[in-house]
Hints:
alpha/beta
Amino acid sequence: MAVGSQEDPEAQKLICPLGQQSPAMENRPRRLVICLTGMPGSGKSVVARVAREMGFDVISMGDAVRAEARRRGLEPTGPNMRSLMLELRSERGPAAVAELCFPLIDKAGPEVLIEGIRSLEEVEAFNVRYGRVVLVAVHSSPKTRFERLRARGRPDDPRDWQEFLERDKAELSVGIGSAIAMADHMIVNEGTLEELAEEARELLAKLRAKGLN
């Protein structure tokens, strides 16, 4: 079954209009929900890996979009993913991808990291459903990010500089710049993977120590 599929009756019990907290969530324990944002290639996957190693449940918004693409019979190429992302927001509103993640988060444990935030509307959707979330941004320069994406070689990664710029423009068009600017915590990633992992580990430990919300 696709992520967020409307065929899941249990998930449907937990879905409610934006601006209202789901009745099914009212009696549930509070969660520590960390939303992770950053441009493609900034290092979000490393932070997510560290979170997983620390025992957080990690939900990838990009994986949710790719699952929806498979449900629609689309190949997970860069152009297809960008088109689907915009189509979902046009069909269901600016928090559409966040809503695809609700069933997975509802079934997760008390500490959750959501990777791939692209707008403040998505952050607000999670705020409404789960109580105040913590927004963390990872930042790297365009040149650094481009080289990382070329080395990564995922099917939806850019093949050249022009495609990289087009992907950045698509991300910025849905509001990721505002999400990065309004982050509660910022990690600047221009060093080694080990340095990024250590900084992520320290920040996540600090957030965990502060407790749920």
